[in-house]
Amino acid sequence: MDKGSKQELSQALFDMETEIKLLDSSVSNNLLNYLNKVKSTIANVFFFNDDGEAVDVRTDLKCPHCESKVYDNRAKKRDPNDSYYKTKKPDFGCSNFEPESCSGGTWKNNDIDSGVWFSASWWLSSTKIPVEWNI
Ligand SMILES: [Zn+2]
């Protein structure tokens, strides 16, 4: 799907949501649920940033510490049906959850005795996002 088509889709979804919200809540709630399902499905492939611009979910990101695949969580965090990702997940996370083989993660509270390992992760607000990702 090209960029222009994604923009049209974004505008259509926005217009649809605006129209639905003008309806009586007895029908609008059900329609909004369907609309959110459509948005969830789209979130697997691309998402719309705050400027309404379509951004593809990246599947080519590699952890600079261990070369493992890095998950791009940006779309899921915008998924209206997924409050867990929205509040708890970093924008990008290394798929390697083994402390022995990825040096980028941390123990909870920097305490190995916590037994809780957080894999390497990056937030969009951070300046530590690897430049080679071209984010
Ligand atoms: Zn890693």
Summarize the structure.
Helix content is 35%, strand content 13%. The protein has four helices and seven strands, in the order H-H-E-E-E-H-H-E-E-E-E. The strands form three sheets. Strands 3-4-7 form a three-stranded antiparallel β-sheet. The protein has a two-stranded antiparallel sheet with strand order 1-2.
Radius of gyration, CA atoms, in whole angstroms:
18 Å
Helix percent band: 25-40%
Judging from the principal axes of the Cα atoms, what is the shape? elongated
Structural class: alpha+beta
Q: Into which percentage range does the β-strand content fall?
A: 5-15%
Model description:
This protein folds into two domains: 3-56; 70-133, no CATH class. Helix 1 runs antiparallel to helix 2. It is built from four helices and seven strands, in the order ααβββααββββ. The protein has helices at residues 3-21, 25-42, 74-77, 83-88; strands at residues 46-48, 54-56, 70-72, 92-94, 106-107, 117-118, 121-122. The protein is α+β, with helices and mostly antiparallel strands and 135 residues long. Bound molecules: zinc ion. The site of zinc ion (ZN) has 9 residues, from loops.
Keywords, separated by commas or semicolons:
single chain, 135 residues, alpha+beta, 2 domains, 4 helices, 7 strands, 35% helix
Give the SSE map:
Elements: H1 3-21, H2 25-42, E1 46-48, E2 54-56, E3 70-72, H3 74-77, H4 83-88, E4 92-94, E5 106-107, E6 117-118, E7 121-122
Antiparallel strand pairs: 1-2, 3-4, 4-7, 5-6
Helix pairs in contact: 1-2
